[in-house]
Task: structure prediction
Amino acid sequence: MTRALVVIDLQKGLHSPEQPLFDLAGVLKGVNDRLAVYRDSGRPVIFIQHHDEGLPLYSAEWALMDELDVQKDDYLISKTHANSFYQTELAELLVRLCVDEIEFCGAQTEYCVDTTVRMAHGLGYRSFMKKGLHTTVDSELLSAEVIRQHHEVLWGDRFLTWI
Result:
């Protein structure tokens, strides 16, 4: 079995002083730790980048966060929908790399991370995550911390396995 690490939308334009991503420093440190594990074992790393009006393709906002340890051998996939599989080459890349297990991390918990985790489950992938390695911003109804906790309850033992 081959497992890939998929890092979803940790892009500069998703974080601002007015709308900060929850525990961003902790998430970035944890993601970089997971990147090191994957690189040490020779397993693939895939970065997903969303683009739309607020994150124009190739803009500063669209760029991955500077703190991420992105390397030239990593795979980069651009998307326009919350589902990282929708109209992208992600599924084909996973087949080409013989991946049947995926570890997820990234932003935003209730949008792109949740949608992609559920889609991967529906496609038959065994999915994994280290608790706390996803983030979001406060909504009008819930704090980012509560959103993150809520999704961890929903995902665990249904859509993914905790590492």
